[in-house]
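Problem: given the chain below (154 residues), write out its structure.
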Amino acid sequence: MDIASFFDSALGGGLFGLVGNVATKVIGIFEAREVFAQKKEEWGHDERVLDMQSKAAAAANQQALAVTAASGSWSGLSDSLKAEGAIGASYAWVNAARALVRPALTIGLCSFLGAAFFALSPGDAARSEISDSLVFAAVTAIVWWFGDRAKKSV
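Solution.
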């Protein structure tokens, strides 16, 4: 073996090793990009899942609040009816004034809500809420008026 052949083999082997090393690094960069893209997709998925879970929890909380508010309204009405029934008879003018309070409050409430309803434009979102309030007020007034006038048990 001569010295030129030795240097050719050493130089060839070194160059081949260098090319292999560079190729490994380039492939590693592409693999890292693929891994990062996959992780980024997983993070996006996790973010979407957390967002949906957050929205679901918010909707559940809103529903629980609505149920609690409705339950409180009906228990307040029941307590009001019990308190009204415990008052008993008095002077004729006191009974007449007391009998006019409910209709006056109901007519006043419905008039106020009706004026607010017709003051808003037909496409306004608040008009729908006021419509719901009018229905709630009307049903409450009817139940309150006629619920208190139910036949008393002796």
